[in-house]
Amino acid sequence: LEAPRQAPALMNLTLEELIAGLQNGFRHEVLEGNVGYLRVDDIPGQEVMSKLRSFLAANVWRKLMGTSALVLDLRHCTGGHISGIPYVISYLHPGNTVLHVDTIYDRPSKTTTEIWTLPEVLGDNYGADKDVVVLTSGRTGGVAEDIAYILKQMRRAIVVGERTVGGALDLQKLRIGQSDFFLTVPVSRSLGPLGKGSQTWEGSGVLPCVGTPAEQALEKALAILTLRRALPGVIQRLQEALREYYTLVDRVPALLHRLANMDLSSVVSEEDLVTKLNTGLQAVSEDPRLLVQVVRSKETSSGPEDETEDPPEMVSEVPEDEASRRALVDSVFQVSVLPGNVGYLRFDRFSDASVLGVL
């Protein structure tokens, strides 16, 4: 394994040199749709972070605070300093209290260190009601993996991309005897983020919530955020449809309450949304006929087979001969007896009362 690069002693670096080094590992911008983008290629340690807190708050976080969602790109982050973890997690932690996020075991000293979020941050925390997506790749390693895993376990972020490398938090380069050969070994170990006991990402890597090739992860993340941005409007339209059209009116209040309180934090696709809505609504209504479906417009259809038919016209005149009348009834009403002696009646259009009276 390649040994970690040794950074110059921090005491010998000026503030300008620290800022220049930080800017090489940080990139931020606001994308279309008011989505904040922060790419982090290296996680500085506590000493650097504490010296640069004011610079980061003024030049990075302040510009991202007004965005409606955030993408944290860790696809190129192969390591970092353990002591820098709280400075990343704390800005995304929505709570007002400190949170124990990990416990680190140090092999040389045989000691453990608890990692907590900071009591306070400069500026504001990123809003709890805003979505966060973390991008990962097969090269994402060490401290970056721990950050991705912690945010995933906190249910604070959706991880999109590839399974991470499953490396070690910290490596040490050891000379073998007096030779020119060196051995790089892991010297720190996560004992389980958020007190999850033996559950850890080391060895196995962090499994993304949505798997996709790393080079397509940002595009996928933006598509997910577009869907999630539309969720409040979808819920509102469903509530309006239930109020106006659902025939089991005594169950409507319970359905509206279920929709208003449904947890959609894990929804990352239209299929997820439809499944969650149908499961929740049918459980409340006890009505298997109450179904939510994705309806695509003709503009987005892939071919003639996807085009929806025009709605049938209302019948206003009754044919004179008996055979034509029977054919008309058969075209309007479908009647059958299903297994279990269940009657089935389907009609797709209504007619005037005078027409129905004749028929």
Helix coverage percent:
25-40%
- Major sheet description: 6 strands, mixed
Shape: elongated
| Poorly predicted residue ranges | 1-8, 301-308
- CATH structural architecture of the largest domain: Alpha-Beta Complex
As for the number of domains, it is: 3
Question: How is the CATH topology of the largest domain named?
Answer: 2-enoyl-CoA Hydratase, Chain A, domain 1
Top CATH class of the largest domain:
Alpha Beta
Strand order of the largest sheet: 1-2-3-6-7-10
Number of helices: 10
Quaternary organisation of the protein chains: single chain
Mean pLDDT across residues: 83
For CATH, the homologous superfamily of the largest domain is named as 2-enoyl-CoA Hydratase, Chain A, domain 1
Topology order in helix (H) and strand (E) letters: HEEHHEHEEEHEEEEHHHHEEH
Please state roughly what percent of the residues sit in beta strands, choosing from under 5%, 5-15%, 15-25%, 25-35%, 35-45% or over 45%: 15-25%
Terminal-residue CA separation: 84 Å
Computed over alpha carbons, the radius of gyration is 29 Å
Task: Describe the structure in your own words.
With 359 residues, this protein is α/β, with parallel strands linked by helices. It folds into three domains: 10-211, 2-enoyl-CoA Hydratase, Chain A, domain 1, CATH 3.90.226.10; 225-285; 322-357, no CATH class. The protein has helices at residues 15-25, 46-51, 53-64, 85-92, 143-153, 217-245, 252-260, 270-285, 322-332, 353-358, and strands at residues 26-31, 35-40, 69-73, 100-106, 111-116, 131-136, 158-161, 170-175, 182-190, 210-211, 333-338, 342-347. Strand 4 and strand 5 form a beta hairpin. Helix 4 runs parallel beside helix 5 (143-153), helix 6 packs antiparallel against helix 7 (252-260) and helix 7 (252-260) packs antiparallel against helix 8. The chain starts with 14 loop residues before the first helix and ends with a helix.
